[in-house]
Specification:
Structural class: alpha/beta
Strand content: 15-25%
Distance between the termini: 36 Å
Low-confidence stretches: 312-323, 334-348
Helix content: 25-40%
Mean pLDDT: 87
Number of helices: 10
Shape: globular
């Protein structure tokens, strides 16, 4: 039988991966009180493979980072201790496990914030009311624009969260700079209307993101750090007038910091003949980035094999409804892979 590109081994820095299928972060809302629960041991270990890369659900860096019910954190001692058996279970299966560090910024309301305070953001512009995938309505509070002198404190939250993640046993962290959340609220000009050194020019708008990267790299080492970006995405009223320039600027800057990988979401896909048609506009970013480049966005078995075989990508592809372990087995057996519907990808 011909070799299956997605199941080919890959060396990602010091990590020897047995295949190129990545379990991407999928918010579960089952960490009651923002503390990971024992049942997560089963959830993640079921999806682990020997030499496979898994990324956790988005994990808050502080008590102001929350915007969804029962999402986990990694800023308290209780949370760190709760993560340890989960990480151990993944390692027992031979998996490589990264913790995604997250701050939602303005994608929140006062009910999620300590003492009922306003959410924080790059701006005081409110996220419009959203109709969620289940038809429910989500209202967001008007955010409070962070003062310039407050921003280093948020950077420090990311640094400490990265330290805590490594203490919990994770192999590394992924900085969440995508999907309309706090870091992206600074990067994209639709949400950043600041006039200080964190607003205006492209360089200024990316300053906060790169300060977070620098702090995390300084704390745990570049070989343990990845970053997720979605320059082409328009989510939570967060978009950029020149996404190509934003993407290229960020991957070039991340290369200078020497981080392990960049995890980028493909531009919006069209459905043609019942299948996702992927425009493949990320190739210039892949060429500009010197580390591993992981892509997400509508990939099935055939499309994933094609881009790896053609050398367009060096990493994994978007997750399906199936967990990573079962998915790898089914691709190996050349079974059909069920595609995730786009409305299942809202809370990443």
């Amino acid at each position: 039988m011909a070799a299956i590109p997605l199941l080919g081994s890959y060396k990602m820095g010091k990590f020897d991966l047995s295949h190129r299928i990545v379990l991407a972060p999928l918010t579960r809302s089952r960490s009651y009180g923002n503390v990971p629960q024992p049942h997560a041991v089963v959830y993640y270990s079921q999806r682990a493979t020997d030499g496979g890369l898994l990324i956790t659900e988005a994990t808050g860096v502080s008590d102001t980072a929350q915007g969804y019910p029962d999402t986990p954190g990694v800023w308290t001692r209780e949370q760190v201790e709760a993560w340890k058996p989960i990480v151990d279970a993944v390692h027992a299966k031979g998996g490589v496990f990264f913790c995604q560090l997250w701050h939602v910024g303005r994608v929140s309301n006062t009910g999620y914030q300590p003492h009922g305070r306003d959410p924080i953001s790059s701006t005081d512009k409110q996220v419009p009311t959203q109709v969620l995938h289940d038809g429910s309505i989500e209202e967001y509070s008007r955010p409070r624009r962070l003062r310039t002198e407050e921003i280093p404190g948020i950077v420090e939250d990311f640094r400490l969260a990265a330290r805590n993640a490594i203490e919990a046993g994770f192999d590394g962290v992924e900085i969440h700079g995508a999907n309309g959340y706090l870091i992206e609220q600074f990067m994209k000009d639709s949400a950043n209307d600041r006039t200080d050194e964190y607003g205006g020019s492209l360089e200024n708008r990316c300053r906060f993101a790169l300060e977070v990267v620098e702090a995390v790299v300084g704390e745990i080492g570049a070989d343990r750090v990845g970053m997720r970006l979605s320059p082409f995405l328009d989510y939570m009223d967060c978009w950029d007038s020149d996404p190509e320039a934003l993407a290229l600027y960020m991957v070039q800057a991340l290369s200078k910091h020497g981080i392990l990988y960049c995890h980028m979401i493909e531009p919006r896909m069209a459905v043609v003949g019942g299948r996702h048609h992927i425009p493949h506009r990320l190739l210039p970013m892949r060429k500009a980035f010197r580390g591993t480049f992981i892509v997400a966005g509508g990939y099935d078995r055939d499309e994933g094999n094609k881009v790896v075989d053609e050398g367009h990508r060096s990493g994994g592809f978007w997750p399906t409804v199936l967990g990573e372990s079962r998915l790898a087995q089914e691709i190996g057996a050349e079974c059909c892979v069920e595609q995730v519907r786009q409305d299942h990808l809202l809370h990443l």
